[in-house]
Write a structure and sequence with these properties.
With 116 residues, the chain is α+β, with helices and mostly antiparallel strands. Helices cover 33% and strands 29% of the residues. It is built from three helices and six strands. The chain is globular, with a radius of gyration of 14 Å.
Length: 116
């Protein structure tokens, strides 16, 4: 099941995430989109902040695979997400630990997620 957070219908900025293989404490951000005309004015930050607030309330860990739009570099996006306590897992994946004690569990969950 995919869950969507949006700021308002006018700008179509959205963040979508889903539970990883039925594990509600592990969530994978599947989409973070802000239309080009609304970038660099805080909409992406507000979406991430809202998602992090929900994750904190639920003590859930978020994961995100970073595929940046053309005007941003992967390292810039990863540094930006670092402001919200996302940690680097590898060259393109970040996680925001919230009760996650063992990263090997994530790797197991991710391999299951990718098979589905």
């Amino acid at each position: 099941m995919s869950i969507q957070i949006s700021i308002n219908a006018h700008n179509k900025a959205i963040l979508q995430y889903e539970n990883m293989n039925g594990r509600p404490k592990y969530r994978f951000i599947t989409r973070l989109y802000v239309p080009p005309s609304f970038r660099r004015i805080g909409y992406g930050s507000r979406l991430i902040e809202n998602a992090c607030k929900i994750a904190d309330e639920d003590r859930a860990t978020f994961f995100i695979y970073v595929i940046p739009p053309a005007e941003f570099s992967r390292s810039n996006i990863m540094a930006w997400l670092g402001k919200y306590d996302f940690k680097r897992l590898n060259d393109s994946t970040l996680y925001r630990p919230n009760g996650l004690q063992d990263i090997s569990l994530y790797l197991e969950i991710l391999s299951e997620y990718e098979r589905d």
